Amino acid sequence: GKIVKYDTKTDTTTVVAELPKFCYSQSMVVDTKLGYAYVNTIPDNHFVLINYNTGEVTDYGRISEYGHHNMVVAPNGCVYGGWMDYYNKTLKLLKFDPTTKKLYHTDKTILRDVGNKVAGNQGIDQWIITKSGEMYVGTVSNSLFFHFDYIINQMHEII
Length: 159
What we know:
The chain is mostly beta strands and 159 residues long. 0% of the residues lie in helices and 55% in strands.
């Protein structure tokens, strides 16, 4: 897999980085302020940091057996996602802090039941950030909707 940067002014593309061998991007979120792209790969569900200005690639290894492909860059600059704890089948909070460059597989359960696979997706389906910085999370199975407080890393079910 290759990470490609598109220049809207010149209508050109440039390969800025290559992912670890045999991996390709399942999802990617970009922090334009820091110049980082965060990638979840398949088939091995690795978390990869890419400095798209220098092309430097840092592979943080496997997220879990099932890496939830939806991630978000929060207003505090941290990247959030989920990882499945196969011991008890819960979804726990994955957090990457770009200031320390550390990936945290927290023990904080954000979904007690990841639900059934729907179109290959399980657990978190979408992260949403409003203009005011409020964060929300939607799940694919059971159609649950949560408010996510990134200051205390806590989910609160709304619907």
